[in-house]
Structure formats: C-alpha cells, structure tokens
Amino acid sequence: MKTQKPYFAFIKQRINAAHRIIIAGHTGPDFDNVGSCLALYEVLRAMRKGVVIASDFHESIWREVAMDKLPNQVKMSSLALYKPDVVFLLDYGKKEKIDASVLWLIEQTKPFVITIDHHEYQSQFGDIVWVDSAFVSTTEMLHMLFSKIKARIPEQANYYLLLGVWGDTGAFAYQRASKRLLRMVNALVTQGDEIQRIMELLHQKMDADEFRLYGKLLASISYDASLGLGVCKIRTQIPEGMNRTVMYEMKRIKGLRVALFLKRFAKTGYWKASVWGAQHNVLDLNEFARRFGGGGHFNAAGFKTKLSGAKIIQMVKQAMRENCVSS
Fold first, then answer.
1. Is the same domain home to 178 and 236?
2. Does residue 23 fall inside a structural domain?
3. Which residue in 74, 238, 46, 58 sits closest to 151, CA to CA?
4. Mean pLDDT on 4-16
5. Domain at 51, CATH number
6. Which terminal residue of the chain has fewer beta carbons within 10 Å of its beta carbon, N or C?
7. Between 323 and 192, the higher pLDDT residue
C-alpha cells in the first residue's frame, strides 16, 4: 500500500516476527542513504534480529561513515541464498535506483517489503510504502519510527541518524529546520562531539596533490550573476566525494541561487549532473532533473544525459529565467 501513514505498530509486528531481515538503499549512496542503512542495522541488531545490508561496500563512503567497522553483509553475488522475511528499502526515490540483485531477490522470495523514503513519490514500491517529502531526510523518518515503536537507539546509531540529516540539509544550509527536527537533533547529541565528527567527514582532509586539484576545480567555476548560477564542468577523474566538497564551496558565492556540477564520462559519453539550490532558489530542481530521468528534492537533485555540457547549462539557465518570471 502507498501511504504517508507509516503504520508503526504494523511495522513493529513484522520486525518482531522476522528471523532474517535485509536492508537495501540506492546505488551510488550518499550520507543520508548510508546513515539510514547503518542506523536501522544497529537498531535491529539491538533487537537481536538477524539482519544484513545488501551491499558489497565498494564505495568508500561506507568505510568513511562506519570508520572501517563495516557490518555483516551478504555478498551481492550470493544474495539468492539469503531468504529474508522482511526487506527494508530506504531512501531510493525510484525503483531503478535499487540494485538489480535486490529486485531479483524480492521477486523470487516474496518477502514483506517496507519502503521508507523522504523523496517525492515516483516509483517506490512494497507492502508498506511510507513516502513523505515533508521530512528532510530518511534518517529523520527512521528516528520517528524508532521513537514510536520504542526501540532502543544504540550510541553509534545516533551518529548515523545525525549524519543523514546533516548530509541532506547541507548542515541546514539549504533546508529549513522544523521544531520537530531540532528536537531530534537535540535528543541525538549525547556525547558532544557528534557534530564535529560529522563536519570533519563532510569536509574531508586532502593530500597535497588533491588539494591542488581542488584549487583548479574552484578556479574553473563560472558564475552568471544575473541568474545566480554557478557551474563547475569537468572531464577529468577526481577523487570520490570531491564534487560534493566543490558544491558546498560554491554555495558560499554571494547571490548564488543554483550550483551545477557537471562531470563527463568518456567511456559512455554521458554527462552526470548534480544540481543544488541555495537560499533564494525558486526552481524545483527535482522537477527539472526528472526531464532527464533523474530526480531528487526541490533543492537537490541529479541526473545523467548524453546532451552536451553547453546544452545542459543552457537548459538550466532557461528554466531559471522562466521560474524567475513566473514567481
């Protein structure tokens, strides 16, 4: 059932009855996705449930967040041998963002599927589909779930839940903080150093060569002051996560409304675009990204296309002009 009502008691019943649970997020995970998966894993482990995360943990973000203390896993190549009672699908937005191995497992074993996602409803699926874009992150939704079912939140899960909020709001740079969210943050800061650890993770240190490359990327940024559009366009390989750091820096440009990061993949000919909105953005970036089969949120979205980089920039500018006129 598609619903904005999470049916907390029903979810708790399914967890209590389950012997084997799988957690899966989306491909190309971000901080909210990784934080959601790891937080739910820690809470279910505290409930003495057999639980694994469906990932080979190839992306460095898993090791960075978990500080190399990665949880138990089922290798994706062996996923068919694991017959779950319940599968949690977290923070994925569109069905095609779920790994094909997980989709195949669901089709073959017919587990009870619970989707929890703060993206707008697109093609999410399951027996319970809790989709609510009023939340700033999926970790915020999970925190509410844990509170409602009276689940104990281990200390490490506190950190993961905070990380998801910080990552998807850009440390509250482009998402407003509700009173509910601030109460959640206050409840989760128990050790005093969680926010400092998160900020260090979001702004990772670089070696000298990476720092020089980072400087070149910043120097390459173009800015259209009439629209408030900042653009960084690259064709070279960069360290994982550096695009995110560049986007954070672009948001410091006075008058910026939209930041666009474009990276071309020579083998496929695709441009991958990440687009973020700043304080005065009026363009729905999720709707814009969906033109290309992508998606996300009002102020943060992504897509890929074989259109030229110049054409993508032209389309962003046109959309911003149209929105400025209509607003």
1. no
2. yes
3. 46
4. 85
5. 3.90.1640.10
6. C
7. 323
Phi, psi (rounded to 5 degrees) for 273:
-115, 135
- Phi, psi (rounded to 5 degrees) for 33: -65, -50
Q: For the purposes of burial, counting CB atoms within 10 Å of the CB of 290, is it exposed (0-12), middle (13-18) or buried (19 or more)?
A: middle
**Going along the chain, which residue ranges are E strands?**
2-3, 20-24, 50-53, 86-90, 112-117, 128-131, 222-224, 229-234, 258-265, 270-277, 295-297, 300-305
Query: Do residue 237 and residue 190 come from a single domain?
Result: no
Find the farthest-apart pair of alpha carbons in the chain and give their distance in angstroms, rounded: 58
Q: Are 287 and 275 spatial neighbours (Cβ–Cβ below 8 Å)?
A: no
Pairwise CA distance, residues 40 & 91, whole Å:
12
The boundaries of the domain holding residue 172 are 2-202
**Together in a domain, 120 and 259:** no
User: Average of pLDDT values for 34-38?
Assistant: 95
Residue located via tokens 């500080």:
67
- Tell me: the pLDDT tens digits for 75-121? 666 777 788 999 999 999 889 889 998 999 999 999 999 999 998 88
Residue 181, CA distances (Å) to 79, 162, 194, 259 in order: 36, 10, 16, 25
Look at strands 2-3 and 112-117 and give their pairing. Answer: unpaired
Say how far residue 284 (Cα) sits from the centre of its chain. 18
Q: For residue 34, give every residue at least 6 positions away whose Cβ sits within 8 Å of its Cβ, in sequence order, or none.
A: 25, 61, 62, 65, 160, 163, 164
Q: Has residue 280 got a pLDDT over 60?
A: yes
Predicted TM-score (pTM) of this structure: 0.78
Shared domain for 167 and 225, answered yes or no, is no
Pairing mode of beta strands 229-234, 2-3:
unpaired
